[in-house]
């Protein structure tokens, strides 16, 4: 389980079950728990207004360098 955090203000956005190694390019909606982000039109935003990802249907396409994460990836 990892925590996605806004790179601009440090606000916790959501907890995500990351499976496998590699970059976080997509976040599948069914693996997200405790969502505190704002869903506006087709954007996933932080309350400070920083766009973190785009809604692509079943998953979010994450914008690199707009977020950081803490936690451990599962193998």
> Which regions are unreliable across 5 or more consecutive residues at pLDDT < 50?
none
General form: globular
What Rg is obtained from the alpha carbons, in whole angstroms?
11 Å
The SS-based structural class is mainly beta
- Reading the helices and strands in chain order gives EEEEEEEEE
Count of individual domains: 1
SS elements, strand count: 9
Summarize the biggest pleated sheet. 5 strands, antiparallel
Strand content bin: over 45%
Share of helix, binned: under 10%
On the 0-100 scale, what is the average pLDDT? 89
Task: Please work out how many helical segments DSSP would assign.
Answer: 0
Multimerization state: single chain
- Neighbour order of strands in the largest sheet: 3-8-7-6-5
Distance between the termini: 11 Å
Outline the structure in words.
With 75 residues, this protein is an all-beta fold. It has one domain (2-71). It is 0% helix and 47% strand. It has no helices and nine strands. The chain has strands at 2-6, 12-16, 26-28, 32-33, 38-40, 43-45, 51-55, 59-62, 67-71. Strands 3-8-7-6-5 form a five-stranded antiparallel beta sheet, with no helix packed on it. A four-stranded antiparallel beta sheet has the order 4-2-1-9, with no helix packed on it. Strand 7 and strand 8 form a beta hairpin. It is globular, with a radius of gyration of 11 Å. It starts with a strand and ends with a strand. The model has no long low-confidence stretch (mean pLDDT 89).
């Amino acid at each position: 389980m990892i925590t996605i955090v806004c790179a601009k203000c440090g606000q916790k956005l959501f907890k995500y079950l990351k499976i496998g190694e590699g970059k976080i390019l997509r976040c599948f909606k069914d693996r997200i728990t405790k969502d505190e982000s704002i869903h506006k039109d087709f954007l996933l935003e932080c309350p400070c207004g920083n766009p973190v990802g785009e809604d692509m249907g079943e998953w979010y396409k994450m914008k690199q360098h707009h977020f950081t994460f803490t936690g451990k990836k599962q193998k």
